[in-house]
């Protein structure tokens, strides 16, 4: 067994693997249950332009920074930051970015695995024709029966464990035989299946409706909240702050062009989100049945009901959720990698045992989120379940803090010469833009995003009846800023009852019949950045 801190964690054998692995890490549930909604209410094609601008300003510089840290050190984020801090002669406090990012990946994977269990179950539900002629009430009942039925948690646990077995099985095979082979097959297969489903939706549905919702330019729908939604979506949906890019950078071959590959990944992620939106609104035969829908309500209630109207709906619904399963599976494989890489470097343990131990720990942590929907649904601290507090901790604190530490470290602790060396062959103009973005723009912007996320999350707990000390005690919870119906969907968390902003909340005025039952996942329970 290799000695502690000297384990070779492996590497890819093909330069294109970095691209496919990165696409698998970035394309997630948010592309399906969040982006179409945001584009439809924030100006369609104009929102897409705003989103791309935010990706280039926020996401891409941070992705590049994390990836080159791993590439330069050939280690996961913990040892990469350790070595970089020593080389730069900076305070040891900067090393906190490493363990905090691994903790964030671990917690987010525990949530993602719970979602993956639901998606896996829905593949079989679709194949069994459970949604034949389903109404919103019936589809809601299927979700509620799986997730929050009293005494039914064991079935939910079985789907959750089944999904994690699939994830751990891939990781245990190693970087080449497991990660590389699986993602090189899984991601292209998912994209081909998506293209096939898109062609089907265009031929049997109303493609003009999809174009009107997603691509049409609607300047009247664009405002400050649109910009805010674009920033939040760009920051929280591409795996930043969780060590994914550092470990993939460490695995990349010496001739992989990281910066060019990451730019292609960002564009591919946006293209997938656009295709998802076009598909969803095209199959809505009345052109408006998915308006204002997002999150659990969109993916697990409204979408199956809409697809049930199509010919051969049994096969179509099964294929759609197989596509979603492949997407979540690839995301979960990517999120497990920083945890497994850290454990191997810390203990020197073999790859197989590291994957199994990490997987068991993720399963145990995920039970806290799973039970928050059933057994522990009535146990709340300051008005929130364990799941909601873990969401707030990761989304409002851990991920923004890690991103803030990395951006500030790169902008203020690294000399320009040292930064140029780790960035590699980069045009001088691009290098200068990167330097000043990391130095001035990102620290302020990321801090603002984290504070906004936390403030609105705490405020929404008050909206849901929390009696915590930060809530107003006169029965009328205070809001951190005025909220109107037009604020809905600006990229911040929200309760399903409020009209305030939120990527996770249900659209204001949405019919109660399409809402999951009380303890089932609802708009307020979605971990926006997890997938």
TrEMBL record:
Q: What is its main location?
A: membrane
Q: Which InterPro entries match?
A: Na/ntran_symport, SNS_sf, YocR/YhdH-like
**GO CC, alphabetical:** membrane
Highest taxon of the source?
Bacteria
Q: Where in the cell is it found?
A: Membrane
Q: Which Pfam families match?
A: SNF (PF00209)
**CDD domains linked:** SLC6sbd_Tyt1-Like
Transmembrane feature ranges: 18-35, 41-64, 102-125, 156-176, 183-202, 230-250, 262-285, 315-343, 355-377, 397-415, 436-456
The alphabetical list of record keywords is:
Membrane, Transmembrane, Transmembrane helix, Transport
* Annotated stretches, region: Disordered: 479-531
Name listed for the protein in its UniProt record? Sodium-dependent transporter
User: What organism is this sequence from?
Assistant: Marinobacter excellens LAMA 842
